[in-house]
Specification:
This protein is 4% helix and 41% strand. By secondary structure, it is mainly beta. A six-stranded antiparallel sheet has the order 1-2-11-7-13-5, with no helix packed on it. The longest helix has 7 residues, at 32-38.
Length: 188
């Protein structure tokens, strides 16, 4: 695994080493010992999968303490634009985003720590996204920020008329009105 810190050092790109031949390929997607040493000592306990077609946008979601979650995102088929937003009030990178294309072709993964909102836009039909979390889904601790918040200025790689949202994702608060994390709080 090739581990690379992004412009927000806590958000990390992970690229597997792919070995291919005439039969196909093999790669190690996750090595807990290396991940814990070089990225974040994280105990993933749940894995989720979504299927979507081009234009679907999911986000910007997160869970508040005590159910805050880290996520490790990967794409099995298709392509997404994955977004992590620092929502730790007082952080030097508060309100900043990491945006990375994840695809079946590039096989990259993105680690998003606690204290960040997460979302993605789907750039190809028949896209399957898998992600691990280090805390169980907790509906009572669920929170989100409006995907189109002008203060964030996220380019989702889609035309506005292409965007397909759930009813819930249409009405989240702006960053300035959302429940957020405190940078000085211990999240792990």
């Amino acid at each position: 695994m090739i581990i690379t810190k992004t412009e927000i050092s806590e958000v990390v790109s992970i690229e597997p080493i792919v070995r291919g031949d005439s039969r196909g390929y093999f790669m190690e997607c996750f090595l807990k010992d290396k991940f814990n040493k070089e990225v974040n000592a994280t105990d993933f306990i749940q894995e989720n999968e979504s299927f979507s077609n081009r234009g679907v946008l999911r986000g910007l979601h997160y869970q508040l303490p005590p159910a805050a979650q880290s996520k490790l995102i990967r794409v099995v088929t298709g392509k997404i634009l994955d977004v992590a937003v620092d929502i730790r009030v007082g952080s030097p990178t508060f309100g900043k985003c990491v945006i990375m294309e994840l695809s079946a072709e590039n096989k990259k993964q993105l680690f998003i720590p606690r204290g960040f909102a997460h979302g993605f836009s789907v750039l190809e039909d028949n896209t399957i996204v898998q992600y691990k979390t280090d805390n169980y889904y907790s509906p009572q601790d669920e929170a989100a920020i409006l995907w189109s918040d002008p203060a964030l200025g996220i380019d989702w790689g889609l035309n506005i008329d292409e965007v397909i949202l759930s009813e819930k994702d249409k009405f989240h608060p702006l960053l300035k009105d959302a429940k957020l994390f405190d940078y000085s709080s211990k999240l792990y």
